Amino acid sequence: MLYFAYGSNLHHFQMKRRCKDSTFIKKINLKDFKLTFRSKYRAADIEIKKNSIVPGGLFEISKSDEKKLDVYEDYPILYKKYYFYYYGKKVMTYTMVKKSPFKFPTERYLNVVKKGYKDCNLDKKYLNNALKP
C-alpha cells in the first residue's frame, strides 16, 4: 500500500527501522492542507487549508509495516487514518484526532523532521512556515 509521510517518518533511517519493508518512492505534495505541530507530544499534524500544500514522502509499505505504524502513531487514539488519491492510487496518511492549539516541537523531534526533509529533498520553507503559529 502507499503511505504519505510528512513528519518524523520522512527520516529514511528511522522509517526503515520502524518499517523494514518500506521503500521511499518519491516526494509529492498534498494539496489544500497545511503542516502544523500540536498535542502534548508536540508532533507534526496536517489540517485542511485551501491553496496550501504539505510536502512529503510517498512510501510503499507492507501490511505488517502498517500495523507497526498504527502502534507508533497511537492509532486510533492520537491519530486517525486519512486517505486520498494520487494519480488514481489510494494513499494513506495519519492526521490527529484532536486539533489542539499549536505547540512548538522539541528540538530532538524537529531535528529528525529536518533530516527527513533532507532525505526526501523537500523544500524547507514549508517546515519553517509551520513553525510560525
Rg result: 13 Å
Distance between the ends: 33 Å
| Number of contiguous helices | 4
Assembly type: single chain
* CATH superfamily caption: Gamma-glutamyl cyclotransferase-like
β-strand amount: 35-45%
- What is the element string, with H for helices and E for strands? EHEEHEEHH
Given helix and strand content, the structural type is alpha+beta
Number of structurally distinct domains = 1
User: Major β-sheet, in short?
Assistant: 5 strands, mixed
CATH architecture: Roll
For the largest beta sheet, what order do the strands appear in spatially? Answer: 2-3-1-5-4
CATH top level label: Alpha Beta
Residues in helices, as a percent range? 25-40%
CATH topology: Hypothetical upf0131 protein ytfp
Write down the overall mean pLDDT. 97
Which overall shape is indicated by the principal axes computed on the Cα atoms?
globular
Poorly predicted segments:
none
- The total count of strands amounts to 5
Overview of this structure, please?
By secondary structure, the protein is of the alpha+beta class. The protein has a single domain (2-123), classed as Gamma-glutamyl cyclotransferase-like (Hypothetical upf0131 protein ytfp). It contains 4 helices and 5 strands; from the N terminus they run E-H-E-E-H-E-E-H-H. Strands 2-3-1-5-4 form a 5-stranded mixed sheet. The longest helix has 13 residues, at 107-119. The radius of gyration is 13 Å and the shape is globular. The chain starts with a strand and ends with a helix.
